[in-house]
Amino acid sequence: MSKLTPLEPWITGKIGVRAGNALTRAALEKFQLARLGETVDYVKRHSPFYQQRLAGYAPPASWEELSAFPFTTPSDLQENDHQFLCVSLAEIERIVTLQSSGSTAPPKRVHFTAADLELTIDFFHHGMATLVQPGQKVLILMPGEQPGSVGDLLKKGLARLGVTSIIHGLVRDAEETLRTIETQEIDCLVGLPVQLLSLARHPSAALIGPNRIKSILVSADFASPALVNALNSAWGAPVIDHYGMTEMGLGGGVECRHCCGYHLREADLYVEIIDPLSGHPLPDGELGEVVFTTLTRRGMPLVRYRTGDQARFLKEPCPCGTVLRRMERVQGRMAGSVLLAKGVPLNITELDQVLFPLPFLLDYQAVISSRNNRDALAIGIETYGADADQQNRTIHHALMALPSISAAVSSGDLALDPVSAGKCVPSATIKRSIIDLRKE
Ligand SMILES: [Zn+2]
């Protein structure tokens, strides 16, 4: 397996660089700018939303010109997805409906033509070459019953690579999933980070031979460094992170074997990092909001779509030697924090960082509520091992290692509720976050 990301030769071919010639940043950016111009022209002609939003904007001739373009926001999509369509409904092959977490906001609907879905299959085909070789077998722990769903498209992409796969769906019964891994001789797992961790920490994981799993792809949710480390040591296999969202066409980018940031689908997406307050693009190395423009989609192209995800481009080249850019692992959403007393933020990544190293923890859920005029933080855990008192003490001790929590507890502004045990129910479309039940 080559260490160079397989996305590089794929993108080289896609942008029309002749075989044998190396990809350069200049050639790639020239391609992106030309496609960006075509996209702007196309959406202005076909999408009622962009006819209005981009009235007075000519296709950009430079990145500076693009930076003056207005953004598209998730609420624009929520308001009227049909206004974004560039084709008739008859040409739409698949519509993905995205519920937003814990809010009453209307869902977002993202539409894809058959050609749009083909772009995703093609990305999965080449991206998965990072993890698996022809002849290997993948267990897909993601939804895949519907044609055009993520599991279905991934299975099609893997088949082109000569890799067999089984669409298993989300893990509901860990024992049954572990038995499948062993009896079906699975080489690679694709799933939600917390689900993969709870599988590895399940007592029946002892069934799995030590070298059974050779690679793991985590997808659909943020994987904090603590979670990735825990997964890596539990499975003894490299953990490769995939970044994507439905609006990007499900797939956005994937790490190479060096596991140090995503390489992006640069022939299909133009990604910017912007200052969320000023809206200005930020230089490489600075943390901001991920914004993307689709370059090849036909059904519902998006121009400068604000993801709410927080990341940065890394300045240093990747050890794999690619000319593709490298984006640091996304750590969470801009709006993903809850505020404790005195406006101190707390987010799920910080909780992950102190809780996932605990070996008895399979998954957890954090809920903040208001009681007697102060905040109360309740942690529900999914666990194996019986000593509830000991687990309670260990969890509280771990939480108090976070300065924001220990300060709020010491000042009497926050109470830590006793830990409760039960089953956590994951979702493949809603990213994990702290559930905030406090009223204004
Ligand atoms: Zn790389």
Describe the structure.
43% of the residues are buried. The protein is globular, with a radius of gyration of 22 Å. It has 440 residues and is of the alpha/beta class. The termini are far apart. The strands form five sheets. Strands 4-3-5-6-7-8-9 form a seven-stranded mixed sheet, sandwiched between helices. Strands 16, 17, 18, 19 and 20 form a five-stranded mixed sheet that branches. The protein has a four-stranded antiparallel sheet with strand order 10-11-12-13. A hairpin with a 5-residue loop joins β14 (338-339) and β15 (345-346). The chain has helices spanning 7-14, 25-46, 48-53, 63-66, 74-79, 114-127, 150-160, 174-183, 193-201, 225-235, 348-355, 388-399, 403-410; strands at 92-98, 108-113, 137-141, 164-167, 188-191, 215-218, 239-243, 253-255, 262-264, 269-274, 288-294, 305-311, 332-333, 338-339, 345-346, 361-371, 374-383, 414-416, 420-421, 435-436. Helices cover 29% and strands 22% of the residues. The protein folds into three domains: 7-118 and 244-333, Rossmann fold; 132-237, 3-Layer(aba) Sandwich (Rossmann fold); 338-436, GMP Synthetase, Chain A, domain 3. Zinc ion is lined by residues 5, 256, 258, 263, 318, 320, 322.
